[in-house]
Amino acid sequence: MVLSDKHRETTTYDAILNAGPPIDLLAKDFVTPIELFFVRNHAGIPQVDVDAFRLTVDGKVSKPLTLTLAEIREKFTWKTLVATMQCAGNRRKELVNYHPIDDGLAWGIEAIGTAEWGGVPLREVLEAAGADLDALHIAFLGLDKIGIGDDAPGFGGSIQMSKALSSEVMLVLEMNGEPLPLPHGGPLRVVVPGYVGARSVKWLHRITVQDEPSDNKFQQIGYKLFPPSISAETVDYAQGMMLTKLPVNSVIVRPQDRNLLRAGKVVVEGYAMSDGEHEISWIDVSADGGQTWQRADFLQAPQLWTWQLWRTEFELAQGQYELVVRAWDTAANSQPETIASVWNFKGYVNNAWHRVNVTVK
Ligand SMILES: Nc1nc2c(c(=O)[nH]1)N[C@H]1C(S)=C(S)[C@@H](COP(=O)(O)O)O[C@H]1N2
Ligand SMILES: [Mo]
What we know:
Helix content: under 10%
Shape: globular
Structural class: mainly beta
Number of strands: 24
Strand order of the largest sheet: 5-4-13-8-9
Largest sheet: 5 strands, mixed
Order of helices and strands: EEEEEHEHEHEEHEEEEHEEEEEEEEEEHE
Number of helices: 6
Distance between the termini: 32 Å
Bound molecules: ligand MTE, molybdenum atom
């Protein structure tokens, strides 16, 4: 794990852990090893007593539930799903370089990882609680304390009922075949494939069926998108767009910006990701700043809910090169060309064409 000073903040509880893998090791494997999987926390990691732990399911339900971890395992259908998790702040650094952003972590391209998640469908738990399926939202609450004092609220967020009932949304107890590690929300988290990472609430202990989105500050203020014209001074948070699905994105992982390369065959590789509901269908790579393009090869068959790893080669003579990548998904969604058109003062969901400048000697 690489911890920069920027990624260390402190509360009265403990240091806030935020970390990502070294880029050399990013997206080398289709399933990310746990030690290379980014961690994004807004507060200290809570110490959870697994024996005393109970998940509460309440709100618009006919049979409110309090479940132990063992009951969650036993009462519902166990399944595994390989899915990519990506922070809404991934690639924020490029936005910051274009125009300053006060808030959030200046992530490079490393706030993304893919795991095999083990757990049970959220839908079955909602059905067991007799959830009113006409209710509009499902709210999640974590055990971590945002702020100081025992009455400080946990990190929370919500998704629409229609997404909550989809088979890919899971209550997760295992990651890559191991008990869910504490930094990733152990013993229990929700995983909402295709959505910004913030909806995959960690240290989950309460699920509430309700008609309004969560009133948690990470739903009402954080993780809202605004057009480039809105600033911290002019913002009315009530007008913001709550982030849900991630837009199509693609990133050059190797070589890295400002790398010095040997003339001849240059391998370019990276990842691409859509909203998960659509597979990536085409990845275009340029070595001349976007004037000419060639199609990259996929390193595995496209699949739903995961990233697409890709690679291509160029024959490059001495000189300066701007490598660029852009992708499409099967619904013909693609990426905007410029950072200017996606810049937003919170620094979310940057999916502009990704550019890397290299020197070939
Ligand atoms: N309880 C809780 N859940 C949380 C967070 C948090 O700070 N507290 N961070 C969210 C954000 S912003 C992201 S991107 C993902 C990151 O999951 P990971 O740390 O397992 O990669 O967790 C989400 N769930
Ligand atoms: Mo995030």
